[in-house]
Amino acid sequence: MIKDMKWWGWGDPAFVFPMDEKPLLWPFIQKTLGLADDCPKTPPVERNAVRLPQQKLNADFMRAINGFLKATQIATDDEQRLIHTYGKSFPDLFRVRRGIVDNAPDMVLFPESHADVEKIVPAAKQFGVRLVPFGGGTNIVGGVEHLDHSAMRVTLDMRRMNRVLSIDRESWTATIEAGVPGPKLEEDLQALGYSLGHMPDSFEFATLGGWLATRSAGMQSDQYGKIEDMVVAMKMVSPAGTIETKLTPKSSAGPDIDQIICGSEGTLGVITEAVMKVHPVPEVKDYHGVLFPDFESGAAAIHEAISRNASPTMFRLQDIAETGLAFSMKKPSEGLSGFVQAQMKKYLKAKGYATPCLMMVGFEGEPDYASAMRRKVLPMMKKHRGFHLGNSVGKTFQKNKFAVPYLRDILMNHGCMVDVAETAAVWSKLMPLYRAARDRIQAQFKEEGYPGYIGCHISHSYVDGASLYFTFAARQIKGKELEQYYRFKRLITETFMQNGGTLSHHHAVGYEHRPWMEREVTRPGLTLLRGLKKTLDPDGIMNPGKLIPHEGANPDAPTPSTTVP
Amino acid sequence: MIKDMKWWGWGDPAFVFPMDEKPLLWPFIQKTLGLADDCPKTPPVERNAVRLPQQKLNADFMRAINGFLKATQIATDDEQRLIHTYGKSFPDLFRVRRGIVDNAPDMVLFPESHADVEKIVPAAKQFGVRLVPFGGGTNIVGGVEHLDHSAMRVTLDMRRMNRVLSIDRESWTATIEAGVPGPKLEEDLQALGYSLGHMPDSFEFATLGGWLATRSAGMQSDQYGKIEDMVVAMKMVSPAGTIETKLTPKSSAGPDIDQIICGSEGTLGVITEAVMKVHPVPEVKDYHGVLFPDFESGAAAIHEAISRNASPTMFRLQDIAETGLAFSMKKPSEGLSGFVQAQMKKYLKAKGYATPCLMMVGFEGEPDYASAMRRKVLPMMKKHRGFHLGNSVGKTFQKNKFAVPYLRDILMNHGCMVDVAETAAVWSKLMPLYRAARDRIQAQFKEEGYPGYIGCHISHSYVDGASLYFTFAARQIKGKELEQYYRFKRLITETFMQNGGTLSHHHAVGYEHRPWMEREVTRPGLTLLRGLKKTLDPDGIMNPGKLIPHEGANPDAPTPSTTVP
């Protein structure tokens, strides 16, 4: 039922990234990052070399929970503590691969119902125990790490709360427990004929509650919205009691409490259930590739389409660098089809597509709707010099979409730093922001004297703007790996903030983005967030140290991870 | 620049409702409400009979504002105090028509810039002065009335802050001062080639800031969204400082502060500016009438269309009673066209449309888009037995849409109670809720022994549900007019709450809906709202007594207006 990821990296322990099927990929990486054939191997430490810190157990709390939880819902073993120590950011993996797990929880609890959570939270409040809600553990901004060493640290693994509780076929809404991971959620809904349609990169492991707590965005968000647009009503157990928001399509009865809970990252309470908008399983899922001569043309094509009501299910436009990486993952064709491809490549090069940008565009829904949308959208792509590659690229994309995150583990095994950073901005600021971030990181590689990779794609588009998703990688500087990483992380985040980007479009704040929160929401905005926290969690037991900077905090203070040796 | 409404009623003092052009209307009303030809006339008192209460002026505050405001920005005269005493609910008009204005402000200020507001709010905080922000004064839930008699009461008339500050033609966003009323907003935007597309019944008088503070919904919300869906960023001056939210299409940097400000009804601060999504002025505005044999068929047609991506700019479906009222406003045709209409009526009656329900459906945008949507939507209407009346009815609707609210003044001149109540629910609850509310009010008329009117329309539709907008009217019970009114108001609100409706879909809470807030948001939800208030307005100077019930308040306690003799 609960599919844990590798303790030292991303994803299914049994999955092996099919490097052999992609003979061009490793040479591409070697060239881009300047990796010699004999580059240093940096595997994770052996599992038995990892020493978990001594447990701090609160006897009163233990007694209380033993009164209402079964023994199978309580774990204090090192295996569970290790698996629940970190999310999956680069600093998370860097530390865990070295066996650094100082912030491991003392205990992991597995609530099986809303009622369980309604007992756990008051007990934690009563005995001053710190609670961190944990979904799939895919967070990459430090969202699930315990930071408070002053008391017993308990992680709530929500994944036994994974049922679709009810479906309203007339209103297209489903009431769902928050701990359900993506695959089971879709499986259960699709057995009823429905789909949520939320497929972020974290899909295979992350949970509904984690998505809601962090304002996640799925690949098909252009059609179905971000997760906060799909929510109709919620239950959150806070230390001040259970908030249950109104089941209504819209309301004007005060501030929107759903939109306070979404993005609260476990700092206000534990999301236990949500009523979500669902839709019948799309009869058609039709994904196409389109090639653009440059990133700007592709972005202009998206912008025109989306503002003229030609809004497909997905637009995903990769810049030159990311397209190069994507093409390196292709299996080279042989024989006739290889010949045809080579000719095509020559033709495209002559036509101005020497360093092209690849767009995936998807159409889902009823057959009439999907094909009408395709007939509307593709000509607009052509108008902006989009060269239609057909839907075979689309099929490859659909097949591979969840394999890419595994690549990072291979790179980390070869002494490389890899991470992602994302933002969003209005259209008038988008391309300048893109160029500023790309150029700034490239300049930094140059300044530090080693080659590096920075690529970007647009993955979520709106009438008023879009998001930019960057991936950056380089060889690690031995002995200064985290300093090096944070230099880049800060540079790119600073560049976002200085060029009109938001601090995060869908990865949330955790502690990694906390130093920029004051600039994001203004100081009185921070006062407001602190007021929310004080109101619902006056004792500060819920996910301490996340989202909201402490009052009087030095915005330039290092984040916890930089203090790790 | 500032177009005040009648002090004793709705709208432009110069406008006369064209009763003479509608010879069927008054007989229809007389019959429906049982009004005799010689029914009592109940005109408002003469203006000079209205005695404003004695002013309570805080000398320190006066000195402070005289230091930074011009004399023309400060009004203490009775004319301004009277005009700013109330909104336009039935109890508001009932009281002002009798000259009851105990809650008049002591002073009205006219800020001309964000900077003015940033000086006024701290001065009010310093000297304990109560502030009520005032836009068009169209609120019908008590939103602009001063309730706190313990200190000087100042109303901020925002309507001099009425400029479009900038437009971003690439991102389709405009930065707009919050005090701009609908007509000037559209005029200024349209001069630039853009439109906001927000046209609620209050359009002619209400302001952007008022709409945002109350989560207003315009007639074209199916295409452009409710006002809270159109907002990109905001500035709000709170007693704890100015919150400026991030200009970004979407973010995951914490709870959505825009969605906290929207619906805060002036209780947290004064909205001074907003960045709004705008769109090019639609080339086509094509409105059609469709007749349904009953309300359920029309609702099913809307539901199918909107869930199959056939979502026009507006669906507005009137029930039998409201359609009867609408038809009574038609000028009877004479000669040949009268003959044709009579034949048509016979034909429709024979086909099952004896007591029909009228739907208005609108298509706006680029010509291709609007006509494609029309070709998609109208056949779906037909499938649900919709009889297409063509677009002449649409033109009549467009012409008359802002005249109807004037009718209430005529009824109040003839001893009648008239008011509206609205809600929203998911589709599975919508028709049962509709029938429950209609039947409950009809049963009450019967129980009280006089005829009455209750009509309803669906005006805002979503994939997961829709809103219901009721109008009810009856003869007043002399000497017990407010008790009678509140009996009906409570009955219908209770029926909403017991049948899965929200407390309000777009009229907000004010003090009229406050007693139900705990049931709407749960007790911990109320704790959260109180925490917001305490954080941003610890001294309680901002619009006291609105939105959030006092801690320990008796939910059944009478609202302020029932205590008026």
* Separation, N- and C-terminal Cα atoms of chain A: 36 Å
- Could you tell me which chain pair has the largest interface and how many residues each side has? A-B, 88 and 88 residues
Calculate the mean pLDDT score of chain A and round it.
94
> Mind summarizing the main beta sheet of chain A?
7 strands, antiparallel
Give a description of the structure.
The structure is a homodimer of 565-residue chains. Chain A has 565 residues and is of the alpha+beta class. The first copy, chain A, has helices spanning 25-33, 59-68, 78-83, 90-97, 114-127, 182-191, 208-214, 221-224, 227-230, 258-261, 295-307, 320-328, 335-350, 367-383, 392-400, 407-412, 427-448, 481-498, 517-521, 523-536, and strands at residues 74-75, 107-109, 130-134, 153-157, 164-168, 173-177, 194-195, 231-238, 241-244, 270-277, 279-280, 284-292, 314-318, 357-365, 387-390, 416-426, 452-461, 465-475. In chain A, the strands form four sheets. Chain A has a seven-stranded antiparallel β-sheet with strand order 15-12-14-13-17-18-16, sandwiched between helices. Mean pLDDT of chain A is 94; it is low at 561-565. The interface between A and B is large, with 88 and 88 residues.
